[in-house]
Design brief:
By secondary structure, this protein is an alpha+beta fold. The protein is built from two helices and three strands. Strands 1-2-3 form a three-stranded antiparallel beta sheet, with helices on one face. Helix 1 packs parallel to helix 2.
Length: 54
């Protein structure tokens, strides 16, 4: 199941709030910071990474 563009925009917004630079791809985003990059289409995954595993 492909995420909707709106969902990817929400992911990008969330990642930017947590200090990531974000690149939106067709079906996922790439969020990068000083610790590396994460490629995801899932808010759940992004929250785990951005929230420090909480």
């Amino acid at each position: 199941m492909k995420p909707k563009t709106q969902d990817l925009k929400e992911l990008a917004k969330y990642a930017k709030c947590h200090g990531y630079t974000v690149e939106i791809k067709s079906d996922h985003i790439v969020a990068a910071n000083n610790n590396g990059a994460v490629r995801t289409g899932s808010m759940e995954t992004l929250k785990k990474v951005a929230g420090g595993g909480k």
